[in-house]
């Protein structure tokens, strides 16, 4: 084990999971998808969309497998701790022969199927919430953990940059085109400059900056 296993929490409720999935699906990709379809065409856009959907499915299975492996490691550690406690309790008994005999009789009286079910416990069942940072500390060394957090920071920065660039630009396109009674389609983008008026004395670039600062605030 590369890092220390910290305490885990309970699983998220289905409602919280639904909110997370909704946040991932309805994001900047949904906002820019019409523009991508209009520029690249239906065929290329659909092929790329299916390919990216397949890659998302594959990476999701990787995350689920990592969560299952982390749960198995946690379950195994709990079983080892429980076994050590039982060994300590048995070592303090005054008559070890009687204790061994009692354990043997209990095992003989216990149904075989129940013993098999208990022995074949699915360690990989996801019963604990293990965050990605904790999984990185469980499976990676110090260098791997630092690289993991570097990738997470880069991803979050890129996601924020997309929001900061795409959303204000889309809002500027819609509001400025609406005030000037012009179409905001693909063909209309080429005849607008950043210095064109938007709302009275405000230029299009000024409207973009207002939306950008409002979104960052």
UniProtKB/TrEMBL annotation:
Predominant location: membrane
Cell membrane as a keyword? no
Gene Ontology CC terms: membrane
Which protein, by its recorded name, is this?
Amino acid transporter transmembrane domain-containing protein
InterPro entries, alphabetized: AA_transpt_TM
The organism's place on the tree of life at top rank: Eukaryota
Transmembrane helix in keyword set: yes
Give the family this protein belongs to, as stated in its UniProt record.
Belongs to the TMEM104 family.
Please report the stretch or stretches of sequence annotated as the Amino acid transporter transmembrane domain. 20-67
List the lineage, top down: Eukaryota, Metazoa, Chordata, Craniata, Vertebrata
